[in-house]
């Protein structure tokens, strides 16, 4: 299990500065987890012509399609509330949100969180309606990730019997996450696709992984553990999977 004493490896070699931690106790569900760590603010609007409704704040919102397929996808940023991290997150936001809204148009309920905590990550993993999780942030060279509340997350934190039976993929767009691919795979179970990065990754590479996610292949490959797959492939897998 990771300790906070281990330094996280930052994308673009930007080691983040410490930030005040949020509450990290694991709640019963995702909604409770968010309420425990950050108050909700005003809802983000959607036009009547949009095929979905949007509720939440700019930093955390949920998109519910008007014709839902009964499946949920989670998109997290794990960056902390520091000037450097906020800048890195901003450089990736547009590309990630293309995938967020693209998934909603395909019938997925989407939970999008720019300040993912350990509790929220685990609640997503255990959500029975969860078909996929994308996480972008900083990682450790033993395979773990750093959450926005400064908590470290590794395979040992996952209770394998509680993992969603519908989970199709976990993508950790953070440095070093592919180092313990075997550990993550064991914790998630053999049916879940895992994508991590070795040794390091960058914000531009994370953007390329998302870019044209619903239009076609992007121009560049990536250094992930499965370089032949990008975001659009994983979403397509989740779309094709039968709900259990």
Overview of the molecule:
This protein is α/β, with parallel strands linked by helices and 244 residues long. The protein has one domain: Rossmann fold (3-Layer(aba) Sandwich), CATH 3.40.50. Helix content is 27%, strand content 17%. The protein contains six helices and nine strands. It has helices at residues 30-37, 83-105, 118-126, 181-188, 203-210, 231-240; strands at 52-56, 60-65, 72-77, 109-113, 130-136, 145-146, 152-153, 169-173, 193-195. The strands form two sheets. A seven-stranded mixed beta sheet has the order 1-2-4-3-5-8-9, with helices on both faces. A two-stranded antiparallel ribbon has the order 6-7. A hairpin with a 5-residue loop joins strand 6 (145-146) and strand 7 (152-153). The radius of gyration is 16 Å and the shape is globular. The two termini are 31 Å apart.
């Amino acid at each position: 299990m990771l300790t906070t004493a281990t330094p996280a490896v930052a994308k673009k070699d930007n080691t983040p500065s410490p930030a005040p931690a949020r509450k990290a106790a694991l709640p019963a569900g995702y909604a409770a987890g968010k309420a425990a760590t950050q108050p909700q603010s005003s809802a983000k609007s959607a036009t009547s012509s949009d095929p979905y409704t949007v509720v939440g704040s700019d930093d955390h919102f949920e998109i519910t399609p008007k014709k839902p397929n009964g499946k949920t996808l989670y998109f997290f940023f794990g960056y902390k509330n520091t000037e450097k991290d906020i800048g890195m997150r901003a450089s990736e936001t547009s590309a990630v949100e293309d995938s967020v809204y693209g998934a909603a148009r395909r019938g997925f309920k989407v939970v999008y969180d720019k300040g993912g905590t350990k509790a929220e990550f685990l609640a997503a993993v255990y959500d029975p309606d969860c078909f996929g999780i994308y996480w972008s942030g900083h990682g450790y060279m033993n395979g773990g990730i750093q959450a926005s509340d400064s908590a470290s997350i590794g395979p040992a934190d996952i209770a394998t019997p509680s993992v969603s039976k519908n989970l199709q993929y976990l993508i950790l767009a953070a440095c070093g996450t592919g180092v313990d691919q075997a550990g993550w795979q064991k914790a998630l179970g053999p049916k879940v696709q895992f994508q991590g990065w070795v040794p390091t990754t960058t914000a531009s590479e994370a953007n390329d992984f998302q870019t044209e996610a619903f239009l076609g292949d992007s121009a560049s490959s990536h250094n992930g553990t499965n370089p032949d797959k990008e975001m659009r492939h994983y979403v397509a897998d989740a779309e094709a999977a039968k709900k259990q």
